[in-house]
Amino acid sequence: MYLIPNGSAGNAGTASIAGSESISGWAITAGSTFGVTTSGDLYTTSIKATGGKIGGFTIDGDSIFAGDKNPSSTPAWGDVRLSSTVTFTREIGGESQEKLRFAIGPGFGVTAGG
Fold first, then answer.
1. Rounded CA gap, 102 and 92, in Å?
2. What number of CA atoms fall less than 13 Å from residue 91's CA on the CB side?
3. Is the full-model pTM beyond 0.70?
């Protein structure tokens, strides 16, 4: 791992990390799979998150969602839910839809079968 001391201008060399173009100014690099530039951009080949928030979306053990995940509430148009491991039920177009994997608000959903 290469770490730039606080206040330094960054790595004088260039490197291509995790499929990025060749960039000069890395703050942290770890081989060819992980790097953070001095401007704060993150490059990696894989991220595993079991909880937290990214850009207004909440991540939990089985979903990434914005808005209300509660299946008994009426979804608003800003609600988005994506699940890769479990299905869920939501009211869509006034009818209860089961085995959903992806839904946006009260008007759109995709079942596990597509």
1. 12
2. 11
3. no
Q: Which has the closest alpha carbon to 28: 19, 37, 15, 20?
A: 37
Distances (CA, A) of 25 to 16, 30, 55, 96: 11, 14, 25, 52
Half-sphere exposure of 60 (CA within 13 A, CB side): 11
The H or E element that residue 52 is part of is strand 52-54
pLDDT tens, position by position, 32-78: 888 888 888 888 888 887 888 888 888 887 788 887 676 556 666 66
Confidence of residue 24 (pLDDT cuts 50, 70, 90): confident
What's the Cα-to-Cα distance from 68 to each of 5, 12, 51, 107, rounded to whole Å?
Answer: 42, 46, 16, 15
d(CA 106, CA 15): 46
